[in-house]
Amino acid sequence: MPRKNPLLFGRDEYKYLHKVLLLTQSQSKYLKSIKTKNGMSLEPKEIEFVKRKFEEWKVDNPNALVWMN
Asked: How much is the average pLDDT of 11-29?
């Protein structure tokens, strides 16, 4: 999957976005918007949302980064 702007997200953040976050069933305002855009061409607030969720997920799932690589 080509990255529109590879400097927005790190490698692990990008994988988290497409392998975890877009597959969740949450109904938050930002997540709905991100899903409709399929993770591409995100607004600055949506980018911050993804980065914040990634940090929370990384703390809760410290060994999960292994299977993503």
From this structure: 89
Phi-psi region at 41: left, alpha or beta (left = phi > 0; alpha = psi -120 to 50): left
pLDDT at 30 over 60: yes
Alpha helices for the chain (secondary structure H): 11-19, 29-36, 44-60, 64-68
Per domain, the residue ranges of the chain are 16-68
Among 7-11, 26-30, 63-67, name the most confident range.
Answer: 26-30
10 φψ region: left (φ > 0), alpha (ψ -120 to 50), beta (else) = beta
The residue type at 31: L
